[in-house]
Write a structure and sequence with these properties.
The chain is an alpha+beta fold. Helices cover about 30% and strands about 25% of the residues. The strands form four sheets. It has a five-stranded antiparallel β-sheet with strand order 8-7-9-14-15. Strands 1, 2, 4 and 5 form a four-stranded antiparallel β-sheet that branches.
Length: about 250
């Protein structure tokens, strides 16, 4: 497995990619409201990314037709924006986006409640976000990749939630997806030993019900098999000599 250690110059480029992606998410969050279409969200996100002279990582990636993955309620990831798909009061919406700055990627996702959402939905969003932070407590030199994965799983499952098995996080750098794969659940093997200079996209995908998922006919949109809500939280992080640095959070 070829996990790349980034040079100081590469890290600076990824910091800037992450900074711009953080701004993109903040601007999108300010503009989300009931009645807007998922296509509107995508268009706005692409405009923001390009206004910084950057390229959306996802646009045409393996044929994906949009810049922002917009996944609503039981959609886990990779929802395709559509002019006739409107978000309603009470929905939860996951936005996954990436930025290319001078050839280097950042990748981050957030889930938002629209208008007045249920307490169940709020808790799912909060737990999914916190499971990321529980995981990166172990994102330090000398620990193994499985330490991060195990912590995410343990926290999310303590609330009775399903941790998606069919999709995982990944390394990131000059390519959107690099080694290693980063599960949100424990495996028998320890995984790689973490070293300073590694850049990782860690992304818990947590279902309110079962962990099982299915793919829709568009071959992109992933949904919960039991129709339960799903939330997604992701950041690009840098392994340093000490605490991890979150590159996609302002």
């Amino acid at each position: 497995m070829a996990v790349t250690i980034k040079s100081p110059r590469e890290i600076e480029l990824m910091r800037e990619a992450g900074r711009i992606l953080a701004i993109t998410h903040e601007e999108l969050a300010k503009n989300l409201k009931p009645g807007m279409s998922t296509w509107d969200i995508d268009r706005l996100g692409e405009e923001i990314i390009r206004s910084y002279g950057c390229i959306p990582s996802f646009k045409n990636y393996n044929g994906y037709p949009a810049s922002i993955c917009v996944s609503v309620n039981d959609e886990v990831v990779h929802g395709i924006p559509h002019k006739k798909h409107f978000i309603d009061d009470g929905d939860i919406v996951s936005l996954d986006a990436g930025v290319i700055y001078k050839g280097y990627h950042s990748d981050a996702a957030r889930t938002y409640g629209i208008g007045t959402v249920s307490e169940e939905a709020k808790r799912l969003i909060d737990v999914t976000r916190q499971s990321f932070f529980e995981g990166i407590k172990f994102a330090k030199p000398g620990n193994h990749l499985n330490d991060i994965s195990s912590a995410i799983q343990k926290y999310a499952e303590s609330f009775g939630y399903g941790v998606v098995r069919d999709l995982v996080g990944h390394g990131i750098g000059s390519h959107l997806h690099e080694d290693p794969e980063i599960p949100n659940f424990a495996r028998r093997r320890k995984g790689i030993l973490l070293q300073p200079g590694m850049t990782l996209a860690i992304e818990p995908m947590i279902n309110a019900g079962s962990c099982e998922v299915a793919w829709m006919d568009d071959d992109w949109t992933v949904v919960t098999e039991d129709g339960s809500l799903s939330a997604h939280y992701e950041n690009t992080i840098l392994i340093t000599e000490n605490e991890p640095e979150i590159l996609s959070l302002s």
